[in-house]
Every structure is written in C-alpha cells, then in structure tokens.
Design goal:
Distance between the termini: 38 Å
CATH topology: Barwin-like endoglucanases
Order of helices and strands: EEEHEEEEHE
CATH class: Mainly Beta
Number of strands: 8
Amino acid sequence: MEIQVLKSKLHCVTVTQAELDYIGSITIDEDLMDAANFIENEQVHILNKNNGERFITYVIKGERGSGVICLNGPAALRVKLGDVVIVLSYALMDFEQAKNFRPWVVFPDTQTNKLK
C-alpha cells in the first residue's frame, strides 16, 4: 500500500510579489527551494495564513538569495503583498517506508525570507 505524506514545507514565508499577467505558479528563491528540497515544476499547496486561502500550483526557480516569493497568474488574486504563506509538497511512498520518513521542514526569517 502507498500513502501520501508531507515531503517538504516552507513554514511562513512572506509574499514579496504578485504578478497576475503570468501563466501561473509560485516563484521561490532558489536557496529556499534547495533547503526545502523543492524542484522546479513540482506541484505545491499554498496556505495563506492571512486569509485562509488554500490552492495548488507549481514551483518556478527564483533568483538565488533574493528572498522572492511571487504568486503568478490567477494565484496572484489569492494573496496580497506581505501575506504570510506556507508552501507544502507531498510524496507517495510505501506505508512502511513512510513510518520512518522525515520531511524537509524549513523555518525562514519571515521578514526577509532568508534562511536563519
């Protein structure tokens, strides 16, 4: 049996940009991507702590060290600049393997989106 478990989590990053005229996605600073073990085009769930919105999109690499968290396309309508969001991804794995799996959970500085 396979189950879906949390793979990666960026806990509490601040939205720095919202670009409606784009095809969709979330742009994430490449340093944050590496720390959370996200890859480009990976599906992610976004949870907005300011308004309770929850939605799904995919990752685009942002400039390394920039602290960028940019919601693009229709997702831009679900955030305001300065909102704090949680970014999650999940993985399918064998039930027994999942019992010992430990996700990548990153707690960046919410003011700068930089690693502590």
